[in-house]
Amino acid sequence: MVLVNTGKNQESKLPSSLADHLGEVLELCDASLRRTAERWGADEPAPIWTEAGKWYRQPDMWTDWTPGFYAGQMWVLHKLLKDDFWAARAREQSAALLPRRHDRDVHDLGFIFLSSYGRWLDQAAEDDPIRKELVDTIVTAATVQSERWNGATDEGFIYSFNGPQSLFIDVMMNVRLLFWAAANGADPGVGERAIEHSRTSASYLVRCDGEGLGETDGSVAHEAIFNTEEGRGEFRCLSTQQGYSPFTCWARGLAWALYGYAYAWGASGHGEFLETAHRCARYYLLNTPGDCVPYWDYGAPGIPDEPRDSSAAAIAGCGLMLLADLDPGAGGAESYRRTAIEIATTLSGDEYLGPKREGEEGLLLGGVYHRPRGWGVGGAVMWGDYFFLELIERLLGLDDEDLRPLGPGECPVRLEKPAD
Ligand code: GLY
Questions:
Q1: What is the mean pLDDT of residues 174-183?
Q2: Which of 168, 179, 319, 386 could form a disulfide with 160 if both were Cys (CB 3.0 to 4.6 A apart)?
Q3: CA of 420 relative to ligand 1 center, distance in Å
Q4: Is residue 229 part of a domain?
Q5: Residue 13 domain-assigned?
């Protein structure tokens, strides 16, 4: 199998042994995902996590926030391996998601559409007439997502699937869709909501030294609860769904924030988002164990006997790479890249790499979906596999300008710059 677009730049910061290793890992992932694709076609809902090594889908998973990551893996493999098998499968798997653009019950349309339709658009030829349809789909999904709005105060936000009272940190990844759409024909209000949401999330969910929420700078809370009545929409308390407690830092939430704020900065030019992304990145670097894979919650009481969350590491690695690319002059940029390389080294080793294990269907082991409910703990999770491949894509991009930055589905398109 031929790996394209790597190895041109002799000054690559990626050690050549790791680049070679990641090339081999991609081939293993390609073979593994082909086997999965034979069993889980586009005519049935995608699986979500593995149980005893086998892909599994919980029957009543109404939120269904992960199928875009299944299509997304196929798009990454197509981009890196240039194999038409994947283009056809990725188109089919993405097209099956089209009805979700009108889904008003979830806050996850960014997860669903950027990795599927966004990547489809990235890889469609400039003269392909499908492009207009793809853009329309993404803009529609973003507009629908923006209407999930709690505007009871001037600190509005896109509310979570729990209801208008609930602000989740995860949504920082989904507002990427709004930023993208605002730069590509959506109503300007869509972009304004993306900015306001990002501000509100930073104020209530990303902790600062010395402020009311206390604790460690850059640590992230999962959920904030607000009153919903017009005129008295004030903050009530912190909460969590998947973390250990409202007052600890759920590792995947931190990773979503790090990546989401880096993107928000790239898309909007608002310095406060850049500062927030750096705070989250510093927290990750300072508080994650030496192999760069966090425990599922930084405050979990049984550390070091708590599970790690490899999916959080993969997302954080992508966020660190994005932040280093967008702010290359920052003091931390080199340590962000080194950490992302360290994450990829750990995740592509024997402990985490699924295709090296007999009977394992997932790519990245050691993920955690929902520790309090015991869902998907220790095996692969669909988004973990996706961000693992995206991390490989970003790292191989160090070798080749053609691969960096990612295209419009995944990379910020700068909106109008704010006045200083
Ligand atoms: N719902 C997003 C997550 O579990 O991270």
A1: 94
A2: 168
A3: 35
A4: yes
A5: no
Ligand 1 atom nearest to 170, measured from its CA: 2
411 pLDDT band (50/70/90 cuts)?
A: very low
Which CATH number covers residue 91? 1.50.10.10
User: Which residue is associated with the tokens 């910020």?
Assistant: 412
For residue 262, the cross-strand partners are none
Ligand 1 centroid from CA 236, angstroms: 22
Average pLDDT over residues 205-214: 74
| 239-248 per-position pLDDT tens digit | 999 999 999 9
Question: To 10 degrees, the CA torsion angle through 76, 77, 82, 86?
Answer: -110
Is residue 417 one of the residues assigned to a domain?
Answer: no
Which range marks the domain in which residue 104 is found?
Answer: 21-410
pLDDT, mean over the chain: 91
Q: Find out whether 316 and 258 touch, Cβ atoms under 8 Å.
A: yes
Reported as a pLDDT band with limits 50, 70 and 90, residue 213 is low
Determine which residue's CA is closest to atom 3 belonging to ligand 1: 170
SS3 162: coil
Q: Pocket around ligand 1: residues whose beta carbon is below 6 Å from it?
A: 65, 170, 242, 252
Q: How far apart are CA 93 and CA 103, in angstroms?
A: 18
User: Whose Cα sits closest to atom 4 in ligand 1?
Assistant: 369
Residue 232 has pLDDT above 90, yes or no: no
Name the domain count of the chain: 1
Q: How far is the CA of 238 from the centre of ligand 1 (A)?
A: 17
Whether residue 289 lies inside any domain: the answer is yes
Q: Which atom of ligand 1 is nearest to the CA of 370?
A: 4
- For the stretch 275-292, pLDDT in tens is 999 999 999 999 999 999
**pTM above the 0.70 mark?**
yes
Q: Which of 64, 383, 386, 387 to mutate to test the pocket of ligand 1 (most atoms within 8 A of CB)?
A: 383
Asked if 239 and 225 touch (Cβ cutoff 8 Å), the reply is: yes
Quick one: tokens of 321?
A: 């790479």
